[in-house]
Amino acid sequence: MPQLVLELLKYVFLVMLYIFIARAVKAVYVELRPQPTGRRPSGRRSQAPAPARPASRKGKAARKVAIVEGTSSKGKSFELGDELIIGRADKCHIVLDDTYVSQMHARIYPRDGTVMLEDLGSTNGTYLNRRRITGTTELHRGDQVKIGKTVLELRR
Q1: Closest to 144 measured CA to CA, from 125, 129, 126, 131
Q2: CA distance 115 to 134
Q3: Contact 86/94 with Cβ under 8 angstroms?
Q4: What pLDDT does 155 receive?
Q5: Would residue 56 be called left, alpha or beta, if left means φ above 0 and alpha means ψ between -120 and 50 degrees?
Q6: pTM summary value
Q7: What pLDDT score does 69 carry?
């Protein structure tokens, strides 16, 4: 009888090991595949977007994104052209070496005279002025965007 129990435990262990490996491979696949823009991953709770600021600000629209806290890139600024993709992947415009940042985490882009921030389905989320955003949100000069341990600020 003990031999039968040992055989049964061996097969149970193998099944559990297979499930663990399958889930690890799936997690890597989901992290590395490119996310289509405008689509949110299913299963996420939608949260209220960050409140919009009044449109009373006049002057030039912000055209730079500066790193103000976090990585070794602190102090660098990036011109906002067509768009800035932020993440860990080498093809991103702003590459952040942080395990809390997804491969393709977020993007900042101009639209109709305003600047927009879009979370690209990141695992740990994108925060605008300490509030988690989902989808696309308008940015204003002075807003702070937190991605992983890095804080970026929109500047003129």
Answers
A1: 129
A2: 16
A3: yes
A4: 82
A5: alpha
A6: 0.58
A7: 83
Q: Is 109 within 8 Å of 130 (Cβ atoms)?
A: no
Candidates 79, 66, 65, 80; CA nearest to 113 is 80
Question: Whose structure tokens read 């695992």?
Answer: 123
The per-residue pLDDT for 24 is 92
Give just the sign of the alpha carbon dihedral 121, 94, 66, 80.
negative
> How far apart are alpha carbons 143 and 154 in whole angstroms?
6
Tell me the residue type at 10. Answer: K
Q: Count of CB atoms within 10 A of residue 96's CB?
A: 22
Residue 142 Ramachandran class (φ > 0 left, ψ -120 to 50 alpha, else beta)? left
What distance in Å separates the CA atoms of residue 84 and residue 5, rounded to the nearest whole number? Answer: 58
Q: Which helix (H) or strand (E) holds 26?
A: helix 2-32
Predicted local confidence at residue 34, as pLDDT: 64
Which residues of the chain have a pLDDT value below 50? Answer: 38-46, 52, 54-59
Structure tokens given for 61: 């629209």
